[in-house]
Design brief:
Helices cover 90% and strands 0% of the residues. It is an all-alpha fold. It starts with a helix and ends with a helix.
Length: 81
């Protein structure tokens, strides 16, 4: 009888350890995903800045990104009218 209750207690303890381990794995995975997300956002921002700079250099500053956005908005509003 004691052997069965000892086995049950051991099984319960092992299950609790595994569950707490799963929680730790989940938290670690969330942290890794969060860091990967931040890295991806930073890479996108850096790429966007580099593209704007390359466009500015290619057009020799004739068209700035702000002017392009304004021109696109104007052309879009003209198409809608």
């Amino acid at each position: 009888m004691k052997l069965n209750s000892l086995g049950a207690a051991s099984l319960l303890t092992l299950s609790l350890v595994m569950i707490s381990g799963c929680d730790q794995v989940e938290k670690s995975a969330q942290q890794v995903i969060g860091k990967a997300t931040e890295s991806a956002k930073q890479a996108i921002d850096d790429t966007h800045k580099a593209a704007e700079q390359a466009l500015s250099e290619a057009t020799q500053g004739l068209i700035s990104p702000e002017k392009q956005e304004d021109e696109q908005e104007e052309s879009n509003s003209n198409k809608e009218a």
